[in-house]
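Model it.
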Amino acid sequence: MMKQIISETTRTTKNIKVMIDIIQYHKEKKNHWDQLVNRSKNGTFLHLRDYMDYHSDRFLDHSFLIYRKSKLVAVFPGNIDNQNYFTHQGLSYGGLIYIPKLSQVDVLHIFEAINEELRILNITNLIYKPIPYIYHIHPAQEDLYALFRNKAITIACNISSTIDLSNKIKFIESRKSGMRKAKKNNIQIEESNDFEKFWPILNSNLENKYQKKPVHTLDEIIYLNKKFPNNIKLYCANENDKIIAGTILFITKKAVHVQYISASPEGKEKGALDLLFYNLINNIYGHFSYFDFGHSNELKGEYLNEKLIFQKEGFGARGITNYIFKYTI
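Modeled.
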């Protein structure tokens, strides 16, 4: 049943009541949710329900659909953990996803309505992960102003290494040298669906370097690739038809994000990743707005992996900050 919340504001000399209706997401609203994300100014395929729900067993989803004057104008991915509401622990970024028509005042009203709904749920804190601007179709930082108005504090800051594809910085000499070596060894670059052959290279590198496993399992990435074949792609560097390096990309409307990157010992020796990324950045995805290598942080940004960020900066990537905010309801 729809829960109705009324917030009031004053514009110029007139008192105006703005009706904001909020309902909790349920699967019967899947098409409505997805349609809103697809016509929003800041949502990506990560916010579609087929992506969000692949790991629904790990999080207590409590997402919202938001209506203004009975029309769906926004969605709010979220999950509850104790008395905390996250936007969303299963996503790299989230927060309010909304249509281009909404004004700053509309967004402030929506936050008021969300706060009231969370109070009813006895939520104490809202932890908010904004969608980085490189994924916005139109400017969409009205939510950041709303966070300021709610006295949000910064609880994490990760530095992501990104290339502005309209104004690229040249590769450093060591990356160029790697490219020359790869060409000399006749390394071939191609798109692949052979996730099973790339996965052992990825697993081995993550375990040896960081004692970690990929965020996704092999089965999950295969499932997601089938659900989103135009958004999740594997590109490989091959030597004699053998994969020696590869990367899995998450492709949105404006930005390409490197989700995973790895090379075998032979691939590292022969500069396979250097040639692979040269082709991706300058040829295959050169018409996009941004190419994002992701962050190089741990401990909410307190630790910077200097070797990792040096590799990304060698391709011409430079920093954008990804903040996480928190405020008391």
